[in-house]
Amino acid sequence: MGKHGRRALVLLLAALSLFVIAACGDDDDSGDSGGGGDGGGKSGGSITISQTSQPDHLDPALTYTVNGIEPLWLVYTPLITYPHKPAPEGSELIPGLAEALPDVSEDGKTYKLKLREGLKYSDGSPVKASDFEHAIKRVLNLESGGSAFYLGIDGAQDYVDAGKCEGDIKGIVTDDKTGDITINLTEPDGSFSHVLGMWFAAPVPGDTPCKEMTEDPPPGVGAYMVTESVPNRQFVLEKNPNFPDLGADIPPAKIDKITTKIVKSAQRQTQDVISGELDYMQDPPPADLKPEVKAEYSDRYREQTAASTYYFFMNTRLPPFDDPKVREAVNLGVDKPALARIFAGELAPGCSFLPPGLPGYDEALDVKDCPAGDPNEPPDLEKASQMIKDAGVDGMEVTVYGNNDDPTDKVTEAYADMLNQMGFKATPKILDGGVYFQTIGSAKTKAQTGFLNWFQDFPHPKNFFFLVDGKSIQPTNSQNPGNVDDPDITKGIAELNLEPEITDEVAEQWAELNKDLVERNYIVPYGHRKLSTFFSERMDFENCSLFHPVYFNDYSSWCLK
Amino acid sequence: MATEPALEQTLQGPAAWEQEAEREHVHGVGPWRLGLRRLRRNKVAIAFGVLFVLLVLACLAAPLWADNVAKTTATENHLSDTITVDGEKVNVVALDGVPIGPQWFKADGKFFLGADPNGRDIMVRLLYGGRNSLMIGIAAALLTTVLSILFGVIAGYFRGWSDSIIRAGLDVVWSFPVVILGVALGVALALGGIKIGPIEVSGDSLLVPILIIGVVYVPYMARPIRGQVLSLREKEFVEASRAQGAGPIRIMFTEVVPNLTSTLLVFFTLLIANAILLEAALSFLGAGVRPPNASWGTMIDDGIDRIATAPHLTIVPGVMLVLTVLSLNVFGDGVRDALDPRAKVRLER
Lengths: 561, 349
Fold this sequence. Notes:
The complex is a heterodimer.
Chain A: H1 3-29, E1 46-51, H2 66-72, E2 80-81, E3 94-95, E4 103-104, E5 110-114, H3 130-141, H4 147-150, H5 156-162, E6 172-175, E7 180-184, H6 192-196, E8 224-230, E9 234-239, E10 257-262, H7 266-275, E11 280-281, H8 290-296, E12 301-305, E13 308-314, H9 324-333, H10 336-342, E14 347-349, H11 363-366, H12 381-390, E15 397-403, H13 408-422, E16 425-431, H14 433-440, E17 449-455, H15 462-465, H16 487-496, H17 504-519, E18 523-534, E19 547-548, E20 552-553
Parallel strand pairs in A: 1-10, 1-11, 15-16, 15-17
Antiparallel strand pairs in A: 2-3, 4-5, 5-7, 6-7, 8-9, 9-10, 12-18, 13-17, 13-18, 14-18, 19-20
Chain B: H1 14-23, H2 31-41, H3 43-60, H4 62-70, E1 82-85, E2 88-91, H5 122-158, H6 160-175, H7 178-192, E3 194-196, E4 199-201, H8 207-216, H9 218-232, H10 236-243, H11 248-256, H12 261-284, H13 296-304, H14 312-339
Antiparallel strand pairs in B: 1-2, 3-4
């Protein structure tokens, strides 16, 4: 580095120091307490938090990872949403920017909503009913990961085929004067209200271009607004001055400013939260620091089971997993408590595909009555090996797919070793996380078995069952790489998805379907992930740390002591 | 990290040795014997040479340790297992995921250096990982040497268009930083492997890092060889051979290449060290040795997340890496000094 470079660095450091001092000073300036939200608590102040990696996108049309969704659901409120409350209330749909929940026609194909009056984006511009259609257009035009959810809208496929951002989606009719929004579907979809509650469907200004906006996110209607975005370095959320009163269930923010820094090292993040340089880390502390965190900082550390399922897929169209007896043997032989140790205790062993918190979840099936045996006990390896011998596939070569995210790589290696103990000749194949799902989702790869997981997008069983729906099998980007195609299960999903409401009876039917899936051994579910909340000393952990059942840590509930 | 071999070599051959021997009045002693005498006088180089041999022997003995002492393999997981330490049963991996630390001989040699997060015996993986690191280093250095001789001799001897094409190709490879090129190739080849006609190499194979490292270092060796050949082809003994009717191929293999021997030998030792380092770097970055195989680079990568509470996971493979590279570098320097006729080493008569 030359002289000028060094000078520039010194100046940069000095500027950063001033910035940090100024940011710390904000704490003292703001002192008004009260504020709404879950537990009350002081409003104002600035905090700095961290993520290990940059969100995939800071654009509501595109983001599809926890890193992006956790902050952005507070920036972009959809027409309908979820109350900022813990489970189970937090999973119930409520009106967001719409006046009321949708009025659904008898045939289940038409949804009518009305936009609240006088809404403004964070930049002060008015929200129009047509902005909803524009948001859906962006999702479809940009080929977002969420586009599949909206292809059921009449004319959505034609819009995609035309490839023009300014085109029209026949099935969405809006009236900016009255605020009326009508959505027509090609066929009824019982989960569509939840689809409308996803961040993808949150209105954005009609002039937002059909391109990725990560570096300059569009304004939204939410407790926060994104005021700065420097990819791979940091992004800043500030309290939205134009946030309307949407009721007690959608409260305004308490903290004025949240700076999210991208810090690769989980070690450093943990140390910084302990020392107070960071106020929250999105990822859990690394395994070797967790015992210390749990022991010494239990007053500001917590773990909650998220609505998620970790499982291995087995390709039912390829040997040896085309044999149901082999799939049963693998389910018997997988050591679930051993896998939980790799997650450093952040995995609740279980064998239900539907996770806790979802309608249809059966705790007995998950643990006590698990067909493969108690998931908290060692497996019946002897029986599994014998079944594999009887099936005549012992010694067969098996490639186990996984990606290089921590701890997926270790889980994949452990699973391969378990298959070896059962009698296979298994080799792990660890791919880069960026290409993993496309690779195993391609029929050409002929992936035999491997790692998969799913966190709910919305609290409806369909959001899990589409992963084992015969209709989800695609030659590329298949969400069902195990090619699970059971006629009973596929028919059951289609029938139950027609139900407009999940009554107790409907939930019971989903539970039966879940039981069928588990008993037929199409997949190897082994547990549900726990997520952590770890705060700095100055955060009010006791009163202001809502863990939302759908969107996890709710930044708008946070406050300083 | 030093990733490039020392390039400024004194490129001399047997002819020069004879000249040197004459200058130092050591008549009747062959050039190789002369070099060996000089090397034996360099006690430090010999000591590090012996250290390298010991490291190689230790790694070659990996199956002996695994079968007879650790009683496990390099890839076997022991997540739910317990071992008896001082009469008490201890989890290899605790419920909160923390693996057992070094046990030395408290558990009859099992988990001598502790376990990794998958409950695998670190000592066993260290030895097997060393075999992989050394094998990749030596094989890649061999590949680099063969390719460098081929390209360097052809370019230097024929000159003209063949020289231009080869030089341009080498410049293209040279223009990329070694690690970046290695990572790019490693990531690309890990998925699909290598398919050239009937030759098919799986992306998980150790051949992939060997080929990558072997290729990226070619310009660093081929260019000096080309320069040396350009000089040698004008020497009298080459002209004499040509005058006697020898063809280019014959001249290259009987006159030119033998005169490159000392250069190649010195380069080779230094290349092994650099190849081992590059392998470690690529494996650390996830573009080298693929799981479940281990190498010192992958072990450092595996241990880096636990450096606060289990520093040995990173330090032990790191120390092995340092010792190996240091021993090869010091020994390589010794060989260079011994074979370099301009070295100011007094000869014994």
